UniProtKB/TrEMBL annotation:
<keyword id="KW-0436">Ligase</keyword>
<dbReference type="InterPro" id="IPR011761">
    <property type="entry name" value="ATP-grasp"/>
</dbReference>
<keyword id="KW-0547">Nucleotide-binding</keyword>
<dbReference type="GO" id="GO:0016874">
    <property type="term" value="F:ligase activity"/>
</dbReference>
<dbReference type="InterPro" id="IPR013815">
    <property type="entry name" value="ATP_grasp_subdomain_1"/>
</dbReference>
<feature type="domain" description="ATP-grasp">
    <location>
        <begin position="126"/>
        <end position="324"/>
    </location>
</feature>
<keyword id="KW-0067">ATP-binding</keyword>
<protein>
    <submittedName>
        <fullName>Carboxylate--amine ligase</fullName>
    </submittedName>
</protein>
Length: 405
């Protein structure tokens, strides 16, 4: 097997961490070092990892830097360059806030702190969207530092969600949901009171609910090199999302689409603001005016972004070509038809409501244009196979018992 001058250090133990590990293993035969707070079966039950390093206090900024520098020294005998990759918002935020202290040991490609504040905080991000002619839903704000009730005139139903997700999840409370769908001012103010009980003091977003089932949701993956030049843009239609109230917005199945106009618009937007690294847009199509409305952009690859790998664009190679070899490329548009899914085919066929979409998925499956990122033939630990089987069976129960509309 070819020796490579790098090893990825992936922070996180979730699905996103596994798909990044798979990407490196598929492309280069390289096994990453996994760093996290605690083990999860996605990465723990695997044969494609070089090592695991756990620290329960990893979310603490001081511990984060100290522990990562310890990991770098521990594996110095490998004589490899470390490519540092975050797999959730908090870890990426910690990398960005501690860039200077991490540069001694690590290579990475993330935006600076000022741009992070503009992109990650939803209130700031929506202002950016307006400046660059990016469509968003009708949106209102309410500060949880205020004792006043929300009284602005809105059309129900509306969605309520935090402007600052990291701070929101640092203040857990009973009844916490990723988003709330409500139908009255009484419900709006009840959610505000509920969120404040956990100590969250930032803005809440109160937003027009765009009608339509899961298939009206859309996803886009973008990568820009260290100089801010776009390297990759994708566009995909969601077939299903998680229906548990704590996980709404996490996609479980999607199909790639080619929409050059929207793909170019999103890529040029991020190039214009100087974005670097991976980004992952969440959008919804509004049939009332025929526009795609952007909800947010994640400052990292998403947990469903592996579909770009299945279409021939390795996420690992994007990092390596940029950070190790400094290769320059033109913006690539993902065009390959592909069905991505982490749920059983039975769930797809039963719970996707659009019959034409079901027929299309069946055709893609028949012609081998189908990928489950967790099902990797090179990773064949028996314990892993058993875990994945149980996970698939659990998805059948989850969707059967779901009440999300």
């Amino acid at each position: 097997m070819t020796e490579h001058p790098f090893i990825p250090v992936i922070i996180g133990t979730n699905i996103n961490a596994y798909t990044m590990a798979r990407s490196f293993h598929e492309e280069y035969g390289v096994k990453p070092i996994i760093v996290g707070r605690a083990s999860l079966p996605f990465t723990e039950y695997s044969t494609i990892m070089h090592a695991y390093e756990y620290e329960a206090d990893l979310h603490n900024p001081k511990t984060f830097v100290t522990f990562l520098n310890m990991v770098a020294r521990k594996y110095a005998s490998l004589e490899k360059k470390y490519i540092l990759i975050g797999t959730d918002d908090l870890y990426v935020q910690l990398i960005i806030e501690n860039k200077e202290m991490l540069r001694e040991h690590y290579l990475f490609n993330y935006i600076d702190e000022d741009l992070m504040e503009q992109v990650y905080i939803k209130k700031n991000f929506y202002n950016l969207c307006r400046e660059h002619d990016i469509d968003i839903p009708s949106t209102y704000y309410h500060s949880c530092a205020s004792d006043e009730e929300f009284t602005e005139e809105v059309m129900f139903p509306v969605i309520i969600k935090p402007s600052d997700g990291v701070q929101y999840y640092r203040n857990p409370f009973e009844g916490l949901q990723k988003i709330y769908k409500v139908d009255s001012y009484e419900e709006i103010n009840e959610v505000i009171r509920l969120v404040k009980t956990g100590g969250y003091q930032e803005d809440l977003i109160i937003q027009d609910f765009i009608p339509g089932d899961d298939t009206y949701m859309w996803d886009s993956v973008y990568y820009a090199d260290q100089d801010g030049k776009g390297q990759l843009i994708s566009f995909a239609q969601v077939a299903l999302q998680e229906h548990a109230m704590t996980a709404i917005g996490n996609y479980t199945a999607l199909l790639t689409r080619y929409n050059e106009q929207m793909m170019t618009k999103l890529a040029r937007f991020l190039e214009a603001i100087g974005y670097v690294g991976f980004a992952n847009f969440d959008l919804k199509y509004d049939e009332r005016d025929g526009k795609f409305k952007v909800f947010e952009v994640n400052i990292r690859q998403g947990r469903s972004s592996y579909y770009v790998n299945a279409c021939g664009y390795s996420m690992a190679k994007l990092f390596v070509d940029d950070l190790i070899y400094r290769e320059k490329k033109e913006l690539a548009y993902v065009k390959e038809p592909m069905l991505f899914s982490v749920v059983p085919k039975y769930v797809l066929r039963k719970y996707v409501q659009d019959e034409k979409l079901v027929q299309e998925m069946n055709r893609l499956i028949k012609h081998g244009k189908y990928i489950d990122p967790l099902d990797y033939k090179a990773d064949n630990l028996l314990k892993r196979k058993w875990y994945l089987l149980m996970r698939q069976l659990n998805y059948v129960k989850k969707y059967r018992n779901s009440s999300w509309k």
